[in-house]
Amino acid sequence: MRFIKCVKLLVAVVVSLFILWLANKPRNTHDDSGWDLKNDDVAIPIKFGKNQREYIDSRGIHVVVGRYVGDSLPGPSHPNLTEEVLNQNNFNPIPSQGEWGEPVAILPHEHSKSQSLYRIHRFNLLASDRIPLNRTLPDIRKPQCKALSYNINELPTTSVIIVFHNEAWSTLLRTVHSVINRSPPKLLWEIILVDDASNRTFLKKPLEDHVSVLPTTIIVLRSEKRIGLVRARLMGAREATGDVLTFLDAHCETTDGWLQPLLYRIKTNPNVAVCPIIDIISDDTFALLRSFELHHGGMSWNLHFRWFGASETLMAERRGNMSIPFRTPVMAGGLFAIGRDYFQEIGTYDDQMDIWGGENIEMSLRIWQCGGRVETSPCSHVAHVFRKSSPYTFPGGVNQILYSNLARAALVWMDEWKEFFFKMNPEANRLRDAQSIRSRLSLRSRLKCNDFNWYLKNVWPENFFPGPDRFFGKIIHRATGKCLERPLGGGGVSQPIGRLKLVPCVQQWFDAHLWVATWNSTRKDGRTLPGYLMSDESLCVDHLDGEARAMACSGFSKQLWHHNLRTNAIVHGNSGLCLSISRPPETPGEVSVHSCDGSSEQQWTLQPEKWS
Ligand SMILES: *[C@@H]1O[C@H](CO)[C@@H](O)[C@H](O)[C@H]1NC(C)=O
Ligand SMILES: *[C@@H]1O[C@H](CO)[C@@H](O)[C@H](O)[C@H]1NC(C)=O
Ligand SMILES: *[C@@H]1O[C@H](CO)[C@@H](O)[C@H](O)[C@H]1NC(C)=O
Ligand SMILES: *[C@@H]1O[C@H](CO)[C@@H](O)[C@H](O)[C@H]1NC(C)=O
Ligand SMILES: *[C@@H]1O[C@H](CO)[C@@H](O)[C@H](O)[C@H]1NC(C)=O
């Protein structure tokens, strides 16, 4: 039975795919208060919704690029729910529900109730409340991971720190119970629950009563005032006495063997923050969905966290032994383990960062630049409820907080590249002078950290930021004066990713019109060396069936192009075909690839933009 379920799960994975759900810039400004933990703006749904764009990448992997859909949902988050409804704890487990990570079926007559409750947390609370706190989950580790054994007596202990704000009883306590049930007691020193000013009545005494009888030391810390993720985590960290701090979001479920690989990595390599593979708990059915392991955390030009497909370089690094933790330029931030002493030594968090957003970027750059590593352990799997939108909102508006936080990260860690970020983000630029960063700069100098240039070269060689040896600017079609644009996404309109377009150029910086070309020199015959044409979101110009498409940058030669400065052509390396405007019967305005004929349709100017 269990085997069949595992097989079903695996089949689901094979049929389904690699999915990237790119977080959009949250544009909402609500007046409620709150934060949501990292990952929540990075949902990875298995369904193909309207807002998602999909394509097959060069490895034949089905990639879906979706977007944060916060704006399209009506806010405030739960307009018609009364205090009484919000304070009710309807946890009502049925033993067979959700077993082995199976979906919970909501019967037709329950739909309206489930939809109404959905608005509280932006997940299906009715489904969650039916699943026992100790539900079983399949062991989704790879065979080579299951084969590893650890000497528990030699591993460090951990304090698991879980911050919550008005979390549902069932999701919060399933997180706690899954940690207790799936961690060797010897390694689980304590669980610290940090309540960031919740006011749901069931999270008060009932919570304390419930955890007081559990077989693990559980400490509940409460903040009366809303302090946000960073300061709440710091509050938990100050109290912690285990050797390692393991931070988890409040709606997770750990799976078999999740803890040992994290602790083992820290034991053998103390200067590391190590993340588990984050699997998916459906926000709708609470089914466990296995996520594709071949992706890693990165960021966009806006410094928003992104999942990107693993590059060729990373794949090559991993090929030796797929069970070894791998390099991760940016961590998602919700779930990771770090040595308690190292956490202190490396400067904890920037406690001037409010609510949430950007703290994972700051921490990732800091750890890497100051001599540590951020990694993902493929043998540790923790499932997380990915929501399609945040149930919380930001006091003072999301932009103010998020962009202040991002401005801080850029000012402290990005050196000359910060100008690139600020030029791309006028909102953040307006907030830069208001930041006082002296203590973070002195931390940086005390730790003798490397610069951002070092980070780009060594940690993220496949990055798509501009650089001194790269072209950065617009690609303009000479005859029409129009700009090459990569597909825009989202905006609530279903739009398949892929086709490049020619559109009127705009004066201001617009990321969809800005390109990096990695060719850096010209040969005697007037051709540049081959290079990649990259845009934000790690998209590269690719050639597919006569069409010029934006596809995930793969590092494969298939995506190499060169510019011929004599003919002004942009030539595809493998095929020798030229980038061209569409010809009838193709749709006007789209960009194609045709055999080179020197015509005006194939002549391009690369117009550099100054960025630093
Ligand atoms: C919520 O309340 C408003 C006004 O009080 C009402 O018009 C609306 O229909 C209600 N919505 C739901 C889903 O009950
Ligand atoms: C979960 O806990 C209940 C009692 O609370 C117990 O009867 C049941 O066997 C447990 N299930 C598992 C899978 O451990
Ligand atoms: C909880 O806080 C919200 C606003 O933050 C308030 O509207 C609500 O009345 C409070 N509920 C309780 C039970 O105190
Ligand atoms: C892979 O690395 C692990 C340590 O993480 C080691 O125990 C294992 O033997 C290695 N496997 C192979 C095939 O080298
Ligand atoms: C061009 O790029 C190659 C590969 O990245 C590098 O080895 C070379 O030094 C660069 N040349 C210049 C002039 O920047």
UniProtKB/TrEMBL annotation:
SUPFAM superfamilies: Nucleotide-diphospho-sugar transferases, Ricin B-like lectins. Pfam families: Glycos_transf_2 (PF00535), Ricin_B_lectin (PF00652). GO terms for molecular function: carbohydrate binding; metal ion binding; polypeptide N-acetylgalactosaminyltransferase activity. CDD domains: pp-GalNAc-T. One of its GO terms (cellular component) is Golgi apparatus. Its EC number is 2.4.1.-. Gene3D superfamilies: 2.80.10.50, Spore Coat Polysaccharide Biosynthesis Protein SpsA, Chain A (3.90.550.10). It is found in: Golgi apparatus membrane. PROSITE patterns: RICIN_B_LECTIN. Residues 470-607 form the Ricin B lectin domain. The chain crosses the membrane at residues 7-23. GO terms for biological process: protein O-linked glycosylation. Residues 597-606 have a biased composition (Polar residues). Its main location: Golgi. Pathway: Protein modification; protein glycosylation. Keywords: Disulfide bond, Glycosyltransferase, Golgi apparatus, Lectin, Manganese, Membrane, Metal-binding, Signal-anchor, Transferase, Transmembrane, Transmembrane helix. This is Polypeptide N-acetylgalactosaminyltransferase. It comes from Daphnia pulex (Water flea).
